[in-house]
Design brief:
The protein is mainly alpha-helical. The radius of gyration is 23 Å and the shape is flat. The C terminus is likely disordered. 76% of the residues lie in helices and 0% in strands. 37% of the residues are buried. The chain contains 11 helices and no strands. The two termini are 24 Å apart. It has 2 domains: 146 residues; 137 residues. It binds protoporphyrin IX containing FE. Protoporphyrin IX containing FE binds next to helix 7, helix 8, helix 9 and helix 10.
């Protein structure tokens, strides 16, 4: 009598499915999304003054891992933010597993996994330093760096349209300038926050002692410069005959920057209402992602190299399938 093992028989097909770069691409996109979500829930913690809703770390209180009734709503909000780290851990581990199986971008996936404990510890230090605004700012900026790592991973695994021409060096340089300026806008934005009323918790005493109006002015000036350089980039892209993809990406970036700038001005002149600040944080992530997209369209590997990489990967898969 022949023994049939239907579960084992399905294993090669399952492996083939998991090795498909499309799976890795989806997981990398999920990593981008959960990290943007972490920025938004982190914002909710700040804006509802729940920063010390769980007064200690890694436990919520000295005796309890989860919020107690004493810390009620603020504790729940802060604890939900902590729980999101668990989801992020799951997603990045899946990314690593799929990267290993697909033999693509393994180093970047390892880096992505390592950022999770770093972010958890920085979150813990924020609580233990009673929301020191410099630590809170680093916590946000680390999220921005993690979003960039997940984005690059996603972009590299994504199938590139064939025949992408090599970009003019001036366009590449302008793309990098956009990235540096956007990073500066984000960094100064966190200093505006640290100097303002939403530094983290009503009882927080470590406000950054800059005049909020002056830092906000610097922040807005940098935004104007960024918008100017983006317009310059879009015009240059058109003049240099760059692909539709590059041109569209630059107009998208400009549109998102203008919308974000509008929110920034409205929130500034209306006394930074919490809801608008929440949208501003989400908008900051969108500006960052749009800027990364622009840079990726001009600084990415030429189509030939991308195609060679994917031909190499599919050759490996074919050999594996023949072995099975
Ligand atoms: C491309 C456009 C912009 C980007 C990417 C951006 C980004 C940011 C970021 C990342 C923060 C810090 C968020 C945090 O630490 O939680 C911030 C805060 C802030 N931004 Fe902007 N910003 C932009 C435009 C503007 C403009 C034009 C203004 C007008 C003055 C403005 C006013 C503010 C204010 C008042 C805060 C502090 C909000 C708070 O109290 O938490 N922003 N911005």
């Amino acid at each position: 009598m022949e023994l049939t093992l239907p579960g084992w028989a399905r294993l090669p097909a399952l492996l083939r499915w998991l090795r498909d770069p499309a799976m890795l691409r989806r997981a990398a996109l999920a990593a981008v999304i959960v990290n943007v979500l972490l920025v938004v829930t982190g914002g909710a913690v700040r804006l509802t003054s729940s920063g010390l809703g769980c007064p200690t770390w890694p436990k919520c209180t000295a005796d309890s891992l989860t919020p107690t009734s004493e810390y009620a709503a603020h504790g729940k909000i802060e604890f939900t933010n902590r729980l999101l780290i668990t989801w992020i851990s799951v997603v990045v581990l899946v990314v690593l597993l799929l990267a290993i199986l697909a033999r693509r971008q393994v180093k970047l996936a390892v880096l992505l996994v390592l950022t999770v404990p770093a972010q958890a510890v920085l979150g813990g230090i924020s609580v233990l330093t009673k929301l020191n605004p410099w630590v809170v700012a680093s916590h946000f900026l680390l999220s921005i760096a993690i979003i960039a790592i997940a984005f690059v991973l996603w972009w590299r695994v994504r199938q590139q349209p064939a025949g992408q021409p090599a970009m003019a060096p001036a366009l590449r340089a302008a793309g990098w300038l956009l990235l540096v300026l956007t990073a500066a806008v984000l960094a100064v934005g966190t200093v505006v926050t640290g100097s303002g009323p939403h530094a983290g918790d009503k009882g927080a005493t470590h406000r950054i002692h800059f005049a909020p109006a002056s830092v906000a002015q610097l922040h807005a000036d940098l935004v104007m410069l960024l918008i100017g350089v983006t317009v310059g980039f879009a015009v240059l892209a058109r003049a240099a005959g760059a692909s539709q993809r590059v041109q569209q990406a630059s107009w998208w970036l400009l549109g998102i920057e203008l919308a974000q700038g509008l929110i920034g001005f409205v929130q500034y002149f209306t006394g930074v209402p919490a809801v608008l600040v929440g949208f501003h944080m989400f908008g900051a992530c969108l500006v960052w992602l749009a800027c990364l997209t622009v840079l990726a369209t001009v600084a990415g590997r030429p189509a030939g190299a991308e195609a060679a990489a994917s031909i190499g990967a599919s050759a490996i898969r074919t050999v594996d399938q023949q072995r099975v």
